[in-house]
Amino acid sequence: MIRVLLVDDQPLIRSGFRALLDLEDDIEVVAEAGDGAEGVALAKEHLPDVALIDIQMPVADGIEATRRIAADPALAGVHVVILTNYGFDEYVFHALRAGAAGFLVKDIVPEDLLHAVRVAARGDALLAPSITRKLINRYITQPLIAGAGTALKDLTSREREAVALVAHGLSNDQIADRMVISPMTAKTHINRAMAKLHARDRAQLVVLAYESGLVARGGS
């Protein structure tokens, strides 16, 4: 059973999402919150698999709630998915950087919402290649972070190669083709790199690849 926490300051949005999710045999909404601070408290209480969190809320917004959840080792199993009305914007960028696993636009069709919840619960990537490319475009304008490259020293050469390909927006199947390995082996390289780098998800790998200089700005 996939346990879901809903965090949104609009009761109508929460009730609509809950009605849809509760129809599924493998999904259970365990709690609802109307602001980010309450959402973090309920995440600690219920330990959901997925937290669907709105960006703009009172008390603590979605970015701050995401940051608090990502920083708490006890909540390492909680996968945050950001809800937004506007698609990929500056708020979403900061939420992904804070530790969100991905994001959904609120007018998403029901089938895509259910698929996204299941993908997030497995700990798989919830960023489409087009969104990864937008992250890349955002990051190539940023300065390198001093000392970030030392985080990569424990990666094998194949793991570094896989991380670089993730940062270029490639899917697991595309990475497998490029590295001439199976998709399962590609996923294993990525998962091991995430564990070594303490990255919660694919978005965090993109962040690290560009902050460390593993991937050149604006190029290969």
Supply database-style keywords.
220 residues; alpha/beta; 5-stranded parallel β-sheet; 10 helices
Measured distance between first and last alpha carbons: 42 Å
Strand order of the largest sheet: 2-1-3-4-5
Radius of gyration: 17 Å
Order of helices and strands: EHEHEHEHEHHHHHH
Strand content: 5-15%
| Total beta strands | 5
Task: Tell me, rounded to a whole number, the average pLDDT.
Answer: 83
**Sheet bearing the most strands, described?**
5 strands, parallel
- Low-confidence runs of at least 5 consecutive residues: 144-148
* Number of helical segments with 4 or more residues: 10
What spatial form do the alpha-carbon principal axes imply?
globular
Describe this structure in words.
- This protein has a 5-stranded parallel beta sheet, sandwiched between helices.
- The protein has helices spanning 11-21, 36-46, 62-71, 90-98, 110-122, 129-139, 157-167, 172-179, 183-197, 202-212, and strands spanning 2-7, 27-33, 50-54, 79-84, 102-105.
- The radius of gyration is 17 Å and the shape is globular.
- 50% of the residues lie in helices and 13% in strands.
- The longest helix is centred in the last third of the chain and has 15 residues, at 183-197.
- α6 (129-139) runs parallel beside α10 (202-212) and α8 packs across α9 (183-197).
- Mean pLDDT is 83; it is low at 144-148.
- The chain is an alpha/beta fold and 220 residues long.
